[in-house]
Structure formats: C-alpha cells, structure tokens
Amino acid sequence: MNTELQGIAAQYSEAVLDLAEKANEADKVLAEINLVNEVIGSDRDMTVVLNHPSISSDEKKKFLSSLFSGKLSELTGTLLNLLADKRRLDILPFIESSYRGLLNKRKNILTASLSCAEPLGDAAIANIKAQLTEHLGKKLELEVKVDSSLIGGVVLKIGDQVIDGSLKGKLKTIEKALLSV
Fold it and tell me: From CA 84, how far away is CA 61, in angstroms rounded?
C-alpha cells in the first residue's frame, strides 16, 4: 500500500515542483508543505478528521483554509484543495518526501545521514561535510544523529549506500565470521 501511495505522491510532487519552479517558489512550496504536515501531524484528531470519509471535501477545504489563512502560497493552497477533492490528503507526507527528493536532485544536492555514538562538535561535523562534499562533487545536506547503541564510531548513509565504521558493526562482522566456522 505504501508503495502505491508513494507512486501517486510522486506524480503530484513532480507536477507541483514543475509549477513551483516556473513561479520561482520551489523552496517556499517545500517549506509550506512541511508546515502543513507538521501542523496536521501534531494533532491525531486533526488527521482523523481530514481523512474521514464522511466529512465532505468542501468542509475539509474550509477547515484547511481557515487553519492556514495567509500562510500558504496560491500553489500550495491549490494543492491542498485538489487533494481534498480527490480524497488524497493522506498522501501529503509522501508528497513532501518525494518533492524534497526531486528538488534536491534538480539542485544537485545529496542527502546523507551520519549516526555517531557520541555528540560531535561543530568543527568535526563541518570537516566531515567538507570532505564528503569534495569527494562526491555535490552539495550535501547532512543530518547528524546520536545513537549510543553504536558503542563507538560512525555510520554514514548516502542514499542506498551504508558505510559502517561503528564498533557495533565491527563486532557483528566478527560474530558472523566466528559463527560461519
């Protein structure tokens, strides 16, 4: 089911991104979609109401309009109205994810995740980011997370590629080697 929703969301996000780029509002629309998802996701009752089949799309549009009055561009408001009419408000998180991925691809930006056992200083993070940017030849958005279960070291995820330099990963490798004997 999620794969189907992601496919539908990809179509919406590509169309919205094309329109947003023509209006020179691509980053603004991403921020607005993010805002809408944060507001809707912060209240479980709101999510239930917006996805409830017995509530008309007109009522949902009025609710969204009053909730985000003056906070959204015309393009984002039109997207919300279209999703309400098509009873597809539930795919908004997938649209945000797909839109962000498409926008980053068009801007030649890679996203990466760095998990470390202990918090890293700003200088260390900047150094890692600079080295990765130089090595990859692309701009990089780096999300840094602390994961104490790693024991030591770091795990870097860039797209589908995972580079595990953690102590936990090394111990698992040793365990596999010992069990295969």
Answer: 6
Q: What is the largest CA-CA distance in the chain?
A: 66
Both structure tokens of 52: 């409830």
> Is residue 30 within 8 Å of 111, Cβ to Cβ?
no
Instruction: State both tokens at 11.
Output: 């179509």
**Per-residue model confidence (pLDDT) at position 85:** 95
Cβ atoms 77, 61 nearer than 8 A: no
Token pair, residue 2, equals 């999620």
Per CATH, is 2-105 categorized as 2.130.10.10? no
Phi, then psi, of 117 in degrees rounded to 5: -70, -30
Residue 22: CB atoms within 10 A of its CB come to 10
What's the CA dihedral at 9, 13, 16, 19 to 10 degrees?
Answer: -140
pTM value is 0.76
3-state DSSP assignment of residue 133: helix
- Of 106, 73, 101, nearest to 9 (Cα)? 101
Give the domain ranges of the chain.
2-105, 109-179
pLDDT above 50 for 1: no
Contacts of 170 (CB under 8 A, 6+ apart): 153
Instruction: Write 165-168 long-range contacts (CB < 8 A, 24+).
Output: 166/115, 166/117, 167/117
User: For residue 10, which of 88, 100, 107, 99 has the smallest C-alpha distance?
Assistant: 99
